[in-house]
């Protein structure tokens, strides 16, 4: 089933060379997941800070805290989707690497499957980046300094 000739080591070395590019892609995906997880953590921390403030507030202050919680909830959903799509891309890349090895070692013809999986991983990571971009836009639009603070004059 597996080649036993002395060239099998050379074959494995060539397969590893082919698999290096997708592995570097996995490293980049890991770094992006780290960024997403950090953002999600900060969003959750902020939501936990706001919850008691919301419960203790009334009137316009209550409405302001509630609005911020809605924005944070939307951001959590978006970051979670970006993480899902990015992890999906990583799983697809792992499958590509496995198929590269299997195709070479078993003399199988997985070229079409490898191509489709790689394209699917690029679509997934592209969508993950797009959702992350949307989350950053939602986050930056939510950071507004209230006009009463901008017009605040120090007491004399």
Task: Compose a concise summary of this entry.
By secondary structure, the chain is mostly helical. The protein has 4 helices and no strands.
Structural account:
The chain is mainly α and about 160 residues long. The chain has one domain. It is built from 4 helices and no strands. Helix 1 (about 10-55) runs antiparallel to helix 2 (about 60-105) and helix 2 runs antiparallel to helix 3 (about 110-140).
Q: Helix-strand pattern, N to C?
A: HHHH
The share of residues in extended strands comes to: under 5%
> What is the mean pLDDT?
88
Helical run tally: 4
- N-end to C-end Cα span: 88 Å
State the low-pLDDT regions, or none.
none
Radius of gyration from CA coordinates = 24 Å
Shape: rod-shaped
Characterize the largest beta sheet: strand count, sense, and whether it forms a barrel. Answer: none
> Structural class per helix/strand content?
mainly alpha
Quaternary form: single chain
DSSP summary, beta strand count: 0
**What percentage of residues falls in helices of 4 or more residues?**
over 70%
Number of domains: 1
């Amino acid at each position: 089933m597996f080649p036993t000739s002395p060239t099998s080591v050379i074959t494995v070395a060539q397969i590893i060379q082919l698999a290096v590019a997708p592995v570097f892609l996995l490293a980049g995906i890991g770094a992006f997941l780290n960024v997403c997880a950090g953002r999600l953590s900060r969003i959750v921390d902020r939501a936990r800070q706001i919850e008691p403030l919301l419960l203790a507030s009334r009137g316009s202050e209550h409405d302001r805290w509630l609005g911020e919680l809605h924005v944070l909830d939307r951001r959590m959903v978006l970051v979670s989707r970006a993480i899902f799509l990015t992890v999906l891309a990583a799983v697809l890349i792992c499958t590509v690497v496995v198929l590269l090895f299997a195709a070479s070692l078993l003399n199988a013809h997985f070229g079409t499957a490898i191509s489709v999986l790689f394209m699917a991983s690029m679509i997934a990571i592209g969508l993950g980046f797009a959702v992350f971009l949307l989350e950053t836009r939602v986050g930056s639009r939510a950071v507004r300094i209230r006009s009463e603070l901008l017009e605040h004059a120090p007491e004399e």
